[in-house]
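ok so I'm stuck.
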Amino acid sequence: MFENERFFSHLSPLERELSFRTEMGLYYSYYKTIVSSNSFSSGIKLLLYDNRTEYPDTINTFRRFNLLPEVLLSEMYRVFQQLGGGNWQECFQINRGYGQPPVNSCTGLGEPSYFYLLAIFALNGLMMAVFFLLCYYISDSVLGAAFGTLQFFYNHSEATRVQWTPPLRESFAIPFLVLQLLVLSYVLRCRRPTISLAVGLSICTLCFMLPWQFAQFALLTQVLAIFVVYLLRLISFNKFQFIILSFIASFILNVILQFGNTLLLSSYYASCLLTCLVITRFASMFIHKLPWLLATV
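replied:
not stuck anymore, here's the structure
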């Protein structure tokens, strides 16, 4: 679908980069900066002290934007090139006609833009396998899993934009949201969640938050829904505390990895987690003293 819309394989390298409109081009430029640098560390340094994005100010782009996907993909591409990835491309000359000069174009994993896009498409392809598992776990039926997956494809244009705008942040985040929902659903059903489940839930939540600045709003709805479920006594206090502490651990790690991102620290999600933390600390004490308070009254 992406190729049919843009004829990406028949564009020159410059035209491919220009096809990334709006913030897509901004995020790709950071990927290209690291790929084009003499070393991975020098590329990271350019992003840590960036004086081009908000010229003449120098900013730390890792604190301002969610750039972990570009960092990982650029390093993967550099390693791939060292292992002979340059052979994984096919170059040819395209005759444009209409009096236009021909251009040279390359396709394949050896081309930086193709490596970037194919990694995104592969991640979202794997997401469908996890989505099938999520539907199967919730419905406890292969038929339910197949029906849920078919519904995703039927509403594909409303469920994702990866086919039109692959570099957007949600293209990296949504696959980890599906995985996080699968782990969270297992935790809610599990009678006695273990430490390994807490670590798994925290890692999945962290992987969902790191690529996308708006992941906090999706997680906010999760926390509110879990809190309502706890108020209705559908889950125990210990399980509610277990989930909230896992979310808090991932939130703290996210803030650290993003150099104290102010959007996170001042978010409703942060305040909601803080409120739930206070509840988990004082609710049990209040419940234990409730009979004494009632007797006093």
